[in-house]
């Protein structure tokens, strides 16, 4: 890890309800521990729980983000949508953009670029997801895909200090399979070198996401180039999430 903090981003996807809020007190308590002072915990619940999470963590170091946003910066006839301005007004600090589950539903690189620009304008920090699918990996196009996603997604963006990158191989999400250590290290290094060269960024932040759990965290934590983790299923259970955080540092 080359950055000050180790990030733990809990992406709850379309899970969770009001009843789950009580279990978050354990995580809030952990965040106050001096032992885990170098951890940065971010929760990204469904839209329906954003306000509750912001209020719940108001007196803690835990921050809240949304899982996606509309590309428009103004209100309009976009049924079922919420834009980054609304997300910011709720008290959120982050927004996930480019997740593969949204890419498959129509979020191409051009649309992602618009969302990132608008979100940066609204002073949100971006959790920008990138990564190849299994076919692209098999055809040895991983680096080509990653470079294309970065170049297109960040078109006409010069400063990336408020962008955190999450390398999420599509074939790893929800499958229980993670990349081999040397492959993951090389891909993270490739992303960082690309960002340093293209944006003159001294310490770009790159997380790993894809089937992260309490078992494989012992292997993942040995890759020092990883600045944290974007965690899906395992983050929805506070005990499992805490276990991952503890094992990262112990």
SSE arrangement:
Layout (H helix, E strand, L loop, with lengths): L5 E6 L13 H7 L7 E6 L5 H7 L6 E4 L17 H6 L4 E4 L2 H4 L5 H13 L3 E6 L3 H5 L3 H12 L9 E5 L13 H19 L6 E4 L7 H4 L7 E4 L6 H12 L1
GO molecular function, one term: triose-phosphate isomerase activity
Pfam family, one: TIM
GO biological process, one term: gluconeogenesis
Question: Low-confidence runs (pLDDT<50, min 5 residues)?
Answer: none
Give the strand line-up of the largest sheet.
1-2-3-4-5-6-7-8
Total domains: 1
Number of helices: 10
- According to CATH, the homologous superfamily is Aldolase class I
Give the fraction of residues assigned to helices: 25-40%
The total of beta strands comes to: 8
Query: What is the terminal separation in angstroms?
Result: 15 Å
**In the CATH hierarchy, what is the class?**
Alpha Beta
Order of helices and strands: EHEHEHEHHEHHEHEHEH
- The shape, in one word, is globular
Kindly provide the radius of gyration, computed on alpha-carbon positions and rounded to a whole number of angstroms: 17 Å
For the biggest sheet, the summary is: 8 strands, parallel, barrel
Structural class: alpha/beta
Strand content: 15-25%
Name the average pLDDT. Answer: 96
Overall CATH architecture: Alpha-Beta Barrel
| CATH fold-level name | TIM Barrel
GO biological process, one term: gluconeogenesis
GO molecular function, one term: triose-phosphate isomerase activity
Keywords: Isomerase
Protein name: Triosephosphate isomerase
Describe what you observe in this structure.
By secondary structure, the chain is an alpha/beta fold. It has a single domain (6-249), classed as Alpha-Beta Barrel (TIM Barrel), CATH 3.20.20.70. The chain contains 10 helices and 8 strands. The protein has helices at 25-31, 50-56, 84-89, 100-103, 109-121, 134-138, 142-153, 181-199, 217-220, 238-249, and strands at residues 6-11, 39-44, 63-66, 94-97, 125-130, 163-167, 206-209, 228-231. An 8-stranded parallel β-barrel has the order 1-2-3-4-5-6-7-8, surrounded by 4 helices. Helix 7 (142-153) runs parallel beside helix 8. It starts with 5 loop residues before the first strand and ends with a helix. GO terms for molecular function: triose-phosphate isomerase activity. Pfam families: TIM. Keywords: Isomerase.
């Amino acid at each position: 890890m080359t950055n000050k903090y180790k990030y733990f981003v809990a992406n709850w996807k379309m899970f969770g309800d009001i009843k789950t809020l009580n279990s978050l007190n354990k995580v809030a308590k952990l965040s106050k521990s001096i032992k885990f002072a170098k951890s940065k915990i971010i929760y990204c619940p469904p839209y329906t729980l954003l306000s509750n999470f912001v209020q719940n963590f108001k007196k803690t170091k835990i921050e809240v983000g949304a899982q996606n946003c509309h590309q428009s910066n103004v209100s309009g006839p976009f049924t079922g949508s919420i834009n980054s301005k609304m997300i910011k007004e709720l008290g959120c600090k982050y927004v996930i953009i480019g997740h593969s589950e949204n890419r498959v539903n129509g979020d191409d690189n051009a649309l992602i670029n618009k969302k990132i620009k608008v979100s940066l304008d609204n002073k949100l920090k971006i959790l920008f997801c990138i990564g190849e699918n299994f076919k692209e990996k098999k055809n040895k196009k991983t680096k080509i895909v990653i470079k294309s996603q970065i170049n297109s997604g960040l078109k006409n963006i010069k400063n990336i200090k408020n962008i955190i990158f999450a390398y999420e191989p599509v074939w790893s999400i929800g499958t229980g399979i993670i990349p081999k250590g040397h492959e993951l290290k090389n891909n993270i290094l490739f992303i960082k070198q690309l960002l340093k060269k293209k944006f003159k960024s001294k310490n770009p932040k790159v997380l790993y996401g894809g089937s992260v759990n309490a078992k494989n965290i012992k292997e993942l934590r040995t890759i020092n180039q990883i600045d944290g983790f974007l965690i899906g299923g395992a983050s929805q259970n506070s005990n499992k999430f805490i276990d991952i955080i503890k094992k990262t540092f112990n």
